[in-house]
Amino acid sequence: MTPGALRDPFFRVVTAAAFTRERIADLAAGRCVAVRVPNFLPRHVVEETLGALETRAFDAYGRKRVHPPVMRFGVGVSDHCRNGRLTDDYWTALERHRKDWEGLGLPFDPFEECRTALGADWPGGIRVGTRGGREMSAGVAREPNQGFQVHFDHALREFSGDLLDSTLVAQFAFNAYLSVPDAGGETVIWCHLWHPADEEFRLPGSYGYDEAVVGDAECVELGPEVGEAVLINPRCFHAVRPSRGARRIALGFAVGLSLTGELLTWG
Predict the structure, then answer these.
(1) What is the Cα–Cα distance from 109 to 101, expressed in whole angstroms?
(2) Domain assignment present for 5
(3) Which of the residues 41, 62, 71, 94 has the least number of beta carbons within 10 Å of its own beta carbon?
């Protein structure tokens, strides 16, 4: 951002003790770009989930579309979108995903732990979203040690019609950190929403864009902390910087605010 340039007073990160309805409403209304809650996950949830995941092999997102490679344990919709539609193989992959998570032998569901704490103060309730009456993925464990390219996430633009059975009026991205690197791994968010002219910066065959797409837009950086959870506005262009040292592993899922006031999640 050019020195002395005007700053958007609502492009700010809020740190809170919990995801209260006021904080979530602020994010939905655009009064902030991210809410972070330190010590969101109890230590035993972090340690047991991480211990179980460290014994398992992670898969990569589609390497032609996602470069540098991003590893994951679980399934997400992004690898199963073709011409704006969710492909049938998503449901096959989801069955494997559920068996893999059950196979960890955890005495709790880490995604349910996240949902419960996230929606504890939300009057409309929170649940995993459905499509055609079928429950979507609860989430995925991601390991972007080489970073994420600059991109945005917006189901309305990525999918034809409604992705879920409910119409969404806002969308968020949730991450809870189980392991963080010695250095790097920051999430960078720019005060820049997608515009048709941005397509000239899209990397060929990729989900991402050349960083020149954001120009001199104002930005914020969020360094990951173990046990912390972050809720961001993913319609803003954002990226993850490469990590150095320890693995960067986070539980993640998308969150939508429906017309009925529910928070709906999906992976």
Answers:
(1) 9
(2) no
(3) 62
* CA of residue 90 relative to chain centroid, distance: 18
Distance in angstroms between the alpha carbons of the first and the last residue of the chain: 33
Per DSSP (E only), the strands in 9-61 are 13-15, 34-37, 59-60
Q: Answer yes or no: are the C-beta atoms of 254 and 266 closer than 8 Å.
A: yes
Contacts of 195 (CB under 8 A, 6+ apart): none
Phi, psi of 112 (to 5 degrees): -65, -40
The number of domains in the chain is: 1
For 137-157, the pLDDT digits (tens) are 999 999 999 999 999 999 999
Residue 60, both tokens: 């990569």
Domain residues for the domain of 66 are 13-266
Judged by DSSP in three states, 43 sits in helix
Give the CATH number of the domain where residue 162 resides.
2.60.120.620
Task: Please tell me the pTM assigned to this model.
Answer: 0.95
